[in-house]
Amino acid sequence: GSLLYLDALRTAFPQALAPRGTALLSWTPGHPCTPAGWPLPTLYCTPAEAGALPSRAATLWVQLLFALRTRALRVLEVGLAAELHDALAALRNGWPALAQDLALGRLSPQPGLPEDVRGRLQALLVPDATRAAELQAECTRGFEGIVQRLWPQLEVVVVGTAYGTEQLYYDALRKGDCKGLPFYCPFYRMAGALLGVNLWPEEPAPRFLLCPDWAFFEFLPCPAEEEPRTVLLGELWEGREYGLVLTARPGEYRCRAGEVLRVAGFHKQCPVVEPTRRESQALSVRGESISEERFFQSLCRTVGMWPGARLVDYVCVESALLGASSGACAPHYEVFVELRGLRDLSEGQRYKLDQCLQEDFPIYKSFRFKGSIGPLRLHLVGAGAFARLREALGSPVPMPRVLREERLLQLIQSTVIS
């Protein structure tokens, strides 16, 4: 799979495999590796040790510093779109300190960065006043398109995951900090197994060729039939959606992966798929089952009605998870939102989301009319709340949008501002 990825990358972007031309922004605590799964030491300008620190925030800061010192980058490789989003947020808030470290050739102490590791990494740095001045000049101009301005020879951003819950960050990056750059998501992974590869780096929407001998695939047609029967690779129809049933390796359990795929076409005789949604990520306090994907569409439509607002991040929970703190009303949705460009919302603006959900989901409107589902409650959280939540997850995997863990909910509640 890694060889297919490298060949596709080189074909589309001829200079992408230049020595030391790739910078890595990815947190892999305890075991340094790359999202591409191919640890080529001559390819990366990022020290392997920088990716295995115990703190996610410290990891991204150190990797960002090493990326900034290399002006001639060709590829920026990230495990998750959220990691690039958080690293660029750290750049936005801390570029004066980064510029100073570049100028002095040092690595300042960071929370979560062991002193012995800091010493070894600092030995790799040398003073570069010219690059520090360039960083200062570009950040002073603003941050739209900042990635291409800081690395003018950059050809592509390689993202380990750019679908599902990562789509929000992916879209925000393409419209803002990474404006003008192509994104390439090379692999489709599920249940710890590599299932498919994207052979089309220059296409904006990722689609993956399922490789028949990498796992044993079965598929359940969607919507579900009365007597569900799995079909195999050779029985798929273009344009249809299927739930994935997976046996990743011989001897492992056969299970429903919880992923829904759409067949986008065929490469020779092999299906090419697009992941569309996760079956487990749905809100359902009365059996209405609103999927994460469709809830997100309603939320984006609502944010468009709030002048000047831009959605940074969100999670939603069913009120039962809050217990007594959710009040005595009927079961309802609690939504936590981080916005940019808007400090507060009126009650009328907050109600717009509930109104959009009623317009988009007749079953939700019916339950609201009967009073069996209470009015949605919308909370604004402080800047950086979701970056801290991702750190608390303690795992380099996409963050769920429908929260079901009480400890994570308590963390996000502590950042509510209104």
UniProtKB/TrEMBL annotation:
Gene Ontology MF annotations: acid-amino acid ligase activity
Domain of life: Eukaryota
Protein name: GHDC protein
Sequence ranges assigned to domain GH3 middle in this UniProt record: 209-278
GO cellular component, one term: cytoplasm
Domain GH3 C-terminal: 303-392
InterPro entries: GH3 (IPR004993), GH3_C (IPR055378), GH3_M (IPR055377)
Listed Pfam families: GH3 (PF03321), GH3_C (PF23572), GH3_M (PF23571)
Lineage: Eukaryota, Metazoa, Chordata, Craniata, Vertebrata
